Amino acid sequence: EVVLTQSPATLSLSPGERATLSCRASQSISSYLAWYQQKPGQAPRLLIYDASAGAPGIPARFSGSGSGTDFTLTIASLEPEDFAVYYCQQRSDWPPYTFGPGTKLEMK
Amino acid sequence: QVLLEESGGRVVQPGRSLRLSCTASGFTFRNYAMHWVRQAPGGGLEWMAVTSFDGDNRYYADSVKGRFTISRDNSKNTLFLQMNSLRAGDTAVYYCVRDSGPVSGGVLDYWGQGTLVIVSS
Fold this sequence. Notes:
heterodimer, A: 108 residues, mainly beta, 11 strands, 0% helix, globular, B: 121 residues, four-stranded antiparallel sheet, 50% strand
């Protein structure tokens, strides 16, 4: 099973700042990584798939990069609505599809 | 727009069974693989099961294999999760999730709002 680790566990930033979230896989997963955003009381929402492809309707300030075992989600300039929990998920080696433990992006 | 509405969650005693349903609208249900993903209270996301567009291919997480069964009725645009031998550790919000393709590609592009299952005596 592919284990995903995310860092940091919590990231405290202010609106307008740049956010960089990391996800590392226990083995190479090529580019088969997605990122999801979850706000309190809501379902997750797909942001990025295949490491760098933006899901429809996702603002351009969200971007993804990486391949192999190391991946990054970048939010170029934080908006107030971006403060949430972010999960990475792999689809390279399944079943099972696995998720990382999440990074909580909180407002400083 | 794509809409997924789960139902069936409730408080159930350990060892009992429960069936969750998910009604889909806003897209051609029979053309997409569908998943169940759960989230324990305060916890992260855990993938449970997937069915291909036609129901012929189904896969499960080891934690539920042999206890849970995913199925679908394409004539009614409905996805099901039959959960047997429930345990306290199955307590979670269960999400119905659409895959981006007809077979399980693993890109989870639309999520329902979830239904809460509490396993407790």
